[in-house]
Amino acid sequence: MLDIPDEVRNKVVADGNAGWLDELPSIVESLAQEWSLTIGATLRGGHVAFVAEATLADGTASVLKVGVPSARRDLTFEATALRLADGDGCASLLLEDVDRGALLLERLGAAICDVVPDPATRHMMMCDVAARLWRPVGPDIDLPTGADKAREYSDLLPRLWKETGRACSEATVEDALACLDRRRRAHDDRRAVLVHGDVHDLNVLQAADGGFKLIDPSGLRAEPAYDLGTIVRANPDIGDDLHARAKRLAAHTGVDATAIWEWGTIHRVSSGLYSRQIGFQPFGDLLLAEADRLTASSHGSPLGRSGDPGIDQG
């Protein structure tokens, strides 16, 4: 019997796709036959895909990932990003069947947080891994842009705020929305690069050569600050100076510090509200408490809050 994590089951049922759970064993079995795979242990930690260890007939260690129906489009973007990266900075894509929402990936080792204990050191290493992925990608490539994500989040944040019982201050949401407006207007297709979209400790794994690679790319055409902002969001429990963290990343990469800070603000609030909604705790509450503290102490941005996004109080 296939070991399907509860988090995946809950996501599929909540999406109204419970029938897919009955189909999944036959999908995995057919992929195993067609790709000559031996399926191993289920890997846990996510909720938008069934993920399991797999071994090819020649002994190659791999990972089988089958996305839930509602994430099928996102899996297409992930496959595009992995093809463009071609194993540089991201796990290699070995085989794909996008119609069935399936990817076969290079199997990597331990997460960077289990190998490198110092958070500040990890942040710089994560930055270097992400930078390996950044390469020019034109509008002819079917990937969402940073501007697209800014528009998506601008619609999403007020709704999440209400659905979570106003889990942070209104000023915090307003600040994030103002940052979203600035980053949307700053997007430039001519300077956009391929970015990962979610660089954090558990998405950076050790490779066979001792280096590190990313897994689970969102796949976007955006400014590099989008990725660096996710590193500013990371580890909300260590109590360091986040302005200093953003400045170190800026100095290390030459990327604008304000852009990094603004994407960090966006990722902190959006991830906090979403984590609160799905019960991913204490991460969600830690992010929102940090966001409220930053808003109260310095208006959440080196530029200060600007504009009034007009959150509907209804």
UniProtKB/TrEMBL annotation:
An annotated Gene Ontology molecular function: phosphotransferase activity, alcohol group as acceptor
Q: Which UniProt keywords apply?
A: Kinase, Transferase
Which GO BP terms, alphabetically? secondary metabolic process
Record-annotated membrane-spanning stretches: none
Question: Can the keyword Transferase be found in this entry's annotation?
Answer: yes
Does the keyword field hold S-adenosyl-L-methionine?
no
SUPFAM superfamilies (alphabetical)? Protein kinase-like (PK-like) (SSF56112)
Q: Which InterPro entries match?
A: Kinase-like_dom_sf, NH2Glyco/OHUrea_AB-resist_kin
Task: Check the record and name the Gene3D superfamilies matching this protein.
Answer: Transferase(Phosphotransferase) domain 1
Q: What is this protein called?
A: Streptomycin 6-kinase
**Native source species:** Kribbella kalugense
